[in-house]
Amino acid sequence: MCALRYWRRLGLVLTPLTLGLVLSVVYGQFHYAVDAVAGLIVAGAVLASHTIYYATAPAAAAAALAERGLETGRA
Description:
Layout: H1 2-6, H2 8-27, H3 33-56, H4 58-67
Helix pairs in contact: 3-4
């Protein structure tokens, strides 16, 4: 989800792999379907908290990312 937002190409490559992983863990009977759904919910919560944090402190967050050499603009 973060890759889709901040690094579109990588996100587009990872999307089918992620969906395949979710389906394969259930099909291969390594996990129940609820485990895969719970993982997606946790990923959504992390993205939401990330978005909320950077929305409330954009200047400080941009400075911290720039200091580490990471891009701070929208994809």
